[in-house]
Design goal:
Layout: E1 7-9, H1 11-40, H2 49-73, E2 75-77, E3 92-97, E4 102-106, H3 118-123, E5 131-136, E6 139-149
Parallel strand pairs: 1-2
Antiparallel strand pairs: 3-4, 3-6, 5-6
Helix pairs in contact: 1-2
Length: about 150
């Protein structure tokens, strides 16, 4: 699944992913090993629901660990300009769509709207007051940037 595309993150976002990886590789993995060992004690493995459920959970845990390791191996740290004039990775942006509804999005590779998503691509590099067109899979829509917070 590894890809060569850089993962653009702020230092805070990278730290957040590293903390999640440490939690998964440490306490969560140890708890999973114990859960499997406990489930083995319930008898015949071919009919042991607890064992199969624990093994399934272990697979999901290991998949998440693999994904996090891959992302962290491709991190490209982005420095925030800090002046809040332009939308960048880490910015909190308030938008107003064509119907007058307001929407707040955070441009983030960790929690929020990915900078590589249609919304992220439309907003990056723009400033407050700019009109943007978001070319989304469900159809294009327009919005105006009301404010940017870094």
């Amino acid at each position: 699944m590894a890809t060569e595309k850089p993962e653009r993150l702020t230092q805070a976002e990278k730290t957040q992913l590293e903390a999640e990886l440490a939690e998964l590789e440490g306490p969560r993995r140890a708890a999973m090993v114990e859960a499997i060992a406990t489930a083995r004690g319930f008898g015949d493995l071919s009919e042991n629901f607890e064992y199969h459920a624990a093994k399934n959970e272990q697979g999901l845990l290991e998949r998440r660990i693999t994904m996090l390791r891959d992302r962290l191996s491709r991190v490209e740290l982005v420095e925030k300009a800090g002046d809040g004039d332009l939308v960048e990775v880490g910015s909190q942006v308030e938008l107003e769509d064509e119907q007058g509804e307001r929407l707040q999005v955070r441009i983030s590779g960790v929690e929020g709207v990915s900078p590589d998503s249609p919304v992220g691509r439309a907003l990056l590099g723009k400033k407050a007051g700019d009109e943007v067109e978001v070319d989304a899979p469900s159809g294009a829509w327009h919005a105006r940037i009301l404010s940017i917070d870094t």
